Amino acid sequence: MKTEEVIAVLSRDRLGPYVRRAGSDDDGLALYEWNGEVGGALHACLGYAEVVLRNALHEQLSRIAQDRRFSDPWYVSLAPLLDLRAQADVASARDRATRNGRTETEGRVIAELTFGFWRYLVSAKYDRTLWRVGLHRAFPHLNATLRQVSKLLQRLNDLRNRIAHHEPIFNRDLAQLHRDVDQLMRWLDADLATWRRLRCPVDQLLTDPRAAVGPQGLSGPT
Fold first, then answer.
1. Which of 122-135 are b and which e, b meaning 16 or more Cβ less than 10 Å from the residue's Cβ?
2. What are the Cα distances from residue 130, in Å, to 10, 55, 62, 123, 144?
3. Is residue 115 one of the residues assigned to a domain?
4. Measured between alpha carbons, how far is residue 136 from residues 116, 126, 146, 191 in Å?
5. Burial, 82: exposed, middle or buried (Cβ in 10 Å; 0-12, 13-18, 19+)?
6. pLDDT tens, per residue, the chain with 222 residues
7. Is 189 helix (H, G, I), strand (E, B) or coil?
8. Which domain, by its residues, includes 137?
9. For residue 102, what is the DSSP state?
10. Which ranges of the chain would DSSP assign to H, the alpha helix?
């Protein structure tokens, strides 16, 4: 297919930001392809971080519940400590976990809770009720404040959502966001962070010629 035919199918509205940034239809389509590739690579890297994060938080929340002699899963026994939004997220996760007659297990429920749910648990709102009580132990190599961790998780959650909705990310500081992913992993598990970094193609993609579009490249104004 010719470039103009591809753009017509994908829609010029969707390709518009890429074409305007790159300066031509051909370069705009190349930038769109690169945006998808680097987004996919970042999404894979985020996937590792998300699983490790939720497992670590789940472990510490379970310990908090056990220390209080609760026998139910933490998302049941600690529910009074959660705000209404978090309680609704848990209810939705439990519903999804038991679709088609499946038996509810903690693992299934935890897997259904979104990155957004976990990132809101690591915030000032839960400083006294969860963070200081034991949630901070999910980050054994932490050298930052709760506020700094919360802001980093917010940036990564925003990035994850943009990638999931196929939105442009070329106009974000992707090198810094990749460092954020690496920092989160190192707070959680330094050895796994090193293992993941060696297998991640993001750094290579950030030097791809398709990223150097427009008179100032991707570091210029958007």
1. bbebbbeebbebbb
2. 46, 16, 11, 10, 17
3. yes
4. 18, 11, 8, 19
5. buried
6. 899 999 999 999 999 999 999 999 999 999 999 999 999 999 999 999 999 999 999 999 999 999 999 999 999 999 999 999 999 999 999 999 999 999 999 999 999 999 999 999 999 999 999 999 999 999 999 999 999 999 999 999 999 999 999 999 999 999 999 999 999 999 999 999 999 988 889 999 998 888 776 433 544 444
7. coil
8. 3-212
9. P
10. 3-10, 12-22, 25-67, 74-77, 84-97, 106-112, 115-121, 146-164, 174-188, 190-198, 202-206
Distance of CA 109 to the CA centre of its chain: 18
CB contact at 8 A, 81 and 120: no
Looking at the structure of the chain, the number of domains it has is 1
Q: Is residue 220 part of a domain?
A: no
71 backbone dihedrals φ, ψ, rounded to 5°: -100, -20
Identity of the amino acid at 95 = D
pTM (predicted TM-score): 0.90
pLDDT, residue 213, reads 64
| Residue 77 maps to a domain | yes
How many other β-carbons are positioned within 10 Å of the β-carbon of residue 3?
16
Q: How far is CA 50 from CA 23, 60, 187, in A?
A: 36, 15, 13
Q: How many angstroms from the chain centroid is the CA of residue 78?
A: 25
